[in-house]
Amino acid sequence: MAVLSVGVFGAIGHGAAQPLVTVFFGDIINILGQEKDNMMEEISKMCVLMAVFGGVAIVCAAFQFMCFKYFGERMQKRMRVAYLDSVLHKDVGWFDMRQVASLPSQITGDIDNIAEAFSEKVSSSIMAVSCFMSGYILAFNAGWMLALVLLSILVLMALGLKFTGGAVREIRMKTQSWYAEAAATVEECLYSMRTVVAFGGEFRELAKFEAAIKEVQKNGVSNGLKGGIGLAWISTVLFAGYALAFGFGGWMRDNDIQNPTTGEVWQPGSIMTCFFCILIGAINLQNIAPGFKAMQGAKMSGGRFFGILETQSAIECSGSDGRKSLETIDHFELRNVHFYYPARPLIKVLDGICLSFKKGQKVAVVGESGSGKSTVMALLERFYDPQDGQVLIDGVDVRDYSVSTLRKAIGYVGQEPVLFATSIRENIMSGYPSATEKDLQQVCSEAQLTFVDSLPNKLDTFVGSGGSQFSGGQKQRIAIARALIKNASFLFLDEATSALDNASEKMIQDTLDHVSHARAGGLGIVSIAHRLSTVQNSDVIFVLSKGKVAEQGTHASLMDANGLYHALATAQQMSKSEHQKKEASQKAYSGDVTPQSQEGKDVATVGGATVRNSALEDVHEQEQERQKELLKTYKVPMRRLLTFCRPEWLYWIPALFGSAVDGCSMPVISFILTKAIVAFFLPKEQMMAKIQETCWIFLGIALANLIFVTGQHWAFAVLGEAMTARIRVAILKALFRQEMGFHDDPQNTPAMSARALEVYALRVTTFNRTFGVEVGALSCVACGLGLAFGYCWQMALVMLGSIPILMGALMLQRKTEEGSNKKENELLMLSQQIITDSVQNARTVHACGCEAELVQLYSGMLNSALKGLPKRAILGGCFFGFAAGIRFFVMSGGFYYGAVLINEGQTTFEAMLVAFMGVIFAGVGAGRCATMLGDGAKAKLAAHGIFSLIDRQSAIDGLEPSGSIPVLPTRYDAGRIEFENVQFHYPFRPQVKVLKGMSFTVSSGMSVGLVGPSGGGKSTVMALLQRFYDPMQGTVFIGSGRTPLKDVNIRWWRSQLGFVGQEPVLFNTSVRANVLYGLTDGETVSDEHLERCKKMANLSFLDENGGKGLDTEVGPRGAQLSGGQKQRVAICRALVRDPPLLLLDEATSALDTQSERVVQASLEAARAGRTCFAIAHRLSTISNCDIILVVGDGVVIEKGTHQELVALQGVYHKLQQQSH
């Protein structure tokens, strides 16, 4: 606070010094106009005094800048950390009720608004208020009668500011809400890029984004128009004030009215002092406005900020938690629990459920999809509290325990594993930051992370956004290791091994059993499972149905009961091959098929080290050097940039003409002002006529300014908003055009792309105004210098030397006021990824209990940005102070030289004053125009980024494909697939070859099963079939004509595919919109076909319990549905397309046995006549395929039918044995 206090006093002193210049100005006018005998002596004293006050202004301004800079940056850092910390400690239900996709941009925007207001904006406002008040005090001291009359200027200006300020705030609120909608659309599709591309939804997403951006554009134009009216009104009132001041002052002087302050007739100097004090005060009134506007924005953002900080979560606790600490858990119980999700209060999920289990037990929760299994786990983790009933720990209500210690006692692995955009090591350690290296190595071994050994940077390998650089099985093993490192009392597994092959699953299951018995007191394991074979050796199995426990017991007792569990188990057994026999659960496994990862998607590293602050700083230093080189060498293609607003070219006419009129206004005003000043020294009979003439000219200039400046700002708003909107659409279109390898790059994470989309377009519009600024500055300088040299070339020539000084000072002041540097912005952009990953994966963050670690990592990045802050603040303060005080010295020297010229008879008072005022006003006008420019360096870098992206040649252009559409005998002939010696590595890890000469041929209409160890290349085959990538060597052929896939029109080809992944991605809209997502533009399907697909995908749950059917909202990223329900919606989406080629990547892994049986039967019926590729770890789901390809180490190891491969007694046979 001491720093802030010094800054406030500095701003007050800086502001108070400004109107003091007018006091000196008035006294000098009196001395020069009356041409006294001791003129030079009096002028010398006044000029020295003026220079002294200039020194005081420099010191005050320097302290103002350095203190507010230091205070603002420190406050901003603390607020950012507090905001993230508070959001991360909100309940899961809080996230369910919000647009999670837009939360990261809202957090960043709110902090930016607050920081902007409480740094240079508030200091400028304090300075302006001080200047305003001291100006009016000095004006009333010089002559209260004239000052009172001139107060009307303030009233008119305030009315105008109130009107325009309210209008601009309203428009800004609308613009922010519309862009928030656009940002949510962008972030959702960027995070779901593979799904958008696979279903050809690029143009649909572009249309949604463009519609939202059009609303932003419309509100932006209104904002610009009303802002222009406000600025024009202020200038108009000021110019009209000249007429009022000189008219009333002339009338008082003409009528010999005495000045109450001096007791003498009004002198020209007193009139000038009074007028200019009022003028400076009034001018600074408009400088108060930006600060108050920023404060209004900060007030709204602060309301959200403090609202979030002050909102007390019922469950989470960010501060000291007064609830009981929990070291270990011995017993869990759900007693008569009733529950519905906050976002869906009409649908009861749990209906009086009762169950209990103890530490050391192996517990399974099974049942149909949507029966409440995941909800039970969510309540045990205390993501939610039940509406009725109790969750008990050791007989005590869970609400009585500290939630952080509760989750430390629980390890959690979800069915959709979430990793953060950092290294493998830091992802695992986030579960228990104080773990030792020995602990880390142990859990890596237990979770079978053998694939890490083949990576160049081992555990320090970067996992990518959301773990995008790894396969589903690899991500799941990392998540299991993260849970194991906690050394918890219980381990919760929500389909945690669904993405693993059978061998890996058995190894991990055996490991978990071993860990459970080996650890002191045992480890309780609670599993949600659809594969009943994985839970047969559980100590207790709870069978859920419609939110209740229908049955419970051991596997044997439940089978004997011949109830629901027996039906589920029988259904699963019936779905297996007739050659398989039901066997008891095995605890050991034999065989030589080791699930080693050979695939390993590209894993980009940052400098070959863990992604820590030091590594990030090295990267940023390199980036700074690159940007410096770009600023030196890159030339912005202005003609090309202006094509983005070509349809609006007619608006350039009022824009540039208004700029010219605005530029000329200041020199013309100075000329008329000089004539008015000189008129005061004329005889009475001439004085009033001359003053009346100048007053009418002032009013004419005011009216012209109102019309043309308003038109100028409106036209530039139209041009700027049009350019911004089209550039944003062009950027998003360019992002959609890029191949998948581009999005795999850690430099192109969804958060960074979204941030660039928001910022780049705004920055390049700086170039739009450049033309207006140049026209305004040129007309201002030409007009001012023309008048100056025409009246007194000596004075004009000397004062001309001050122009570079004044211009340089103004530009320096603007630069230091901005106070931002590249390193800060780059680090903030990268730290944005932490916010995005954390907020969008709140459940994982809560389950891991790593809120503090994420906040600490974020805080560390911000601390890196603050390095050297005191030095930057002091240096900036010196520059700012110099810029603020130099005008005192320039005016002091100018007046002294003018007095010398008059004293030596080389010029007259009028000629000297015209020359002096002409040059000064030309410099001020040109400087004012220059301050309207944005940051040219940022704009230049933004332009380079935009055109580099737009011009980047995509290896696989999905928007404007160049390939042809092959002529096929039938549409299903597209399903003939041939891989010929295909070799492939992911773009960012060329040293690890994934496919090593894979070859196979599949005839159209065949069903193909892809099996093999995790990481063997199965998912890569799917990616190549969707043409996310092209092979490095070899060829993929389609159709009986063996057309190379790379020669085929990619949009046509992808329309022939239906894809269902193991981690289904749904969009935040209705089920209907999601299942129709795969249709091409203009394509429709009949209600009968839609209903048939709905039935095939077993979507009957949509109509249960008063559901809305296909109009059910799925929530952000499908959060309102369970994993199995999401997978069924994704299957329906694929079936609606009726594709010739169906790709199923563990498409039923998240389904319960009954649902799987129904959906599997539907899929088998649906694949009749079409080609179907299915990746499966449950071999029973692909045993009746026409051909099974056993993939390992990047090649096809074996191929044949199920019977043929079993008879071969090879790899498939061993996998088959391990699946029991």
Automatic annotation (TrEMBL):
SMART domains: AAA. Its main location: membrane. The chain crosses the membrane at residues 48-71, 145-164, 231-253, 265-285, 649-682, 697-719, 795-812, 873-899, 911-930. Residues 575-604 are annotated as: Disordered. GO terms for molecular function: ABC-type oligopeptide transporter activity; ATP binding; ATP hydrolysis activity. It is a multi-pass membrane protein. Residues 6-297, 655-938 form the ABC transmembrane type-1 domain. Belongs to the ABC transporter superfamily. ABCB family. Multidrug resistance exporter (TC 3.A.1.201) subfamily. Gene3D superfamilies: ABC transporter type 1, transmembrane domain, P-loop containing nucleotide triphosphate hydrolases. The keyword Glycoprotein applies. It is found in: Membrane. GO terms for cellular component: mitochondrial inner membrane. This is Bile salt export pump. Residues 576-585 have a biased composition (Basic and acidic residues). GO terms for biological process: oligopeptide export from mitochondrion.
